[in-house]
Amino acid sequence: MNVSDLFKPLTLMHGPAMRNRFMLAPLTNQQSELDGAPSIYDQNWIRQVANGGYGLIQTGAATVEAGGIAYARQLGVHNDYLMVGLREMASSIRDGGGLSAVQLHHGGHRARPEVGGVPAPASSRTLNNTRALTTEQVERIRDNFIAAARRAELAGFDGVALHGAFGWILSEFMSPLLNDRDDRYGGSVENRARLTIEVIEGIRKATGPDFQIGWRLSVERYGHQLEQLREITACILDRELIDYLDLALWDSAQVVREGAYRGQSMLSVFTSIPRKRVRVGTAGKIMGAQRAAQLLDEGCDFVLIGRAGILQSDFPLQVMDNPLYDSPALPVTADYLRRGGLSERFINHMRGWPQFVVPGSP
């Protein structure tokens, strides 16, 4: 384990290399405008992390269509008028020396009507009084993912990352619990993965040869079966459909508790898959330099920094200066986050996370 390895460049199949092995995770912060336009707070935050030493910076989840919104003040990439603010974000990241990606998102059955969302379940049994998407509606959503990626490219981003985690629409279609369809998007493992693969293939055809595609995958909850997700992932990696896989683990050290991989680390289930030229990284309680370096030894090509990046926006630079760097202990005060450059909107969002902000902290 050598912390200096974190600062070696990482080539990707398409486009430029990451200058190091640090990727800023897509961080929900609820600070955009109500219509999804990047706010001054979004721009300030992006400028801040752009100067933080990351190899690649992902935006927070951005809606690919207005009805897919899942929470208030969510960033949007569903309309051309949003590109003005997106161009500014891409430019800030480029000026800071890192690569950039818009995370593409649709809430699926978890879209929230109270903020303008239209729930779009794969199955009619998931929500009361809500019919499953028709095949034509699934195709519309697929095409809107592709159009959003094209928008991101025109705005100057190096790539996009598909949000295929946490029960959002791509994750939902993968789940045998949430997807009981009898069309070509349901039934077999292959059919349930079809929406994700068609989105990836469509983006590759619609964008230039240097455009990068990432895919965020989670394995917990929402009826997912680890063995099936590994099968789908193995297919996507074998076909080299993506540039990088982002494993969204709540804890990068977690151990599988049941099934064929019981007793193994969750991470090893995926790092053991032949990956050809696809890069694989993980998120999950990576709070210090030593743990980040250890994950390279455990088979990762890069690490995703989430909570540690909120606590210290220049986490990579801190690690560069101090190979024993560890994040401040949680919870922290709201004033600590203010001093670190977070907006009140961002801080209020973090108050909803367990044990992140000291309760009652003004």
From TrEMBL:
Key word Membrane present: no
CDD domains: OYE_like_FMN_family
Pfam families assigned to the protein according to its UniProt record, in alphabetical order: Oxidored_FMN (PF00724)
Alphabetical keyword list: Flavoprotein, Oxidoreductase
Gene Ontology terms for molecular function: FMN binding; oxidoreductase activity
Domain NADH:flavin oxidoreductase/NADH oxidase N-terminal intervals: 5-319
PANTHER family associated with the record: BINDING OXIDOREDUCTASE, PUTATIVE (AFU_ORTHOLOGUE AFUA_2G08260)-RELATED
Protein name in UniProt: NADH:flavin oxidoreductase
Organism: Luteibacter yeojuensis
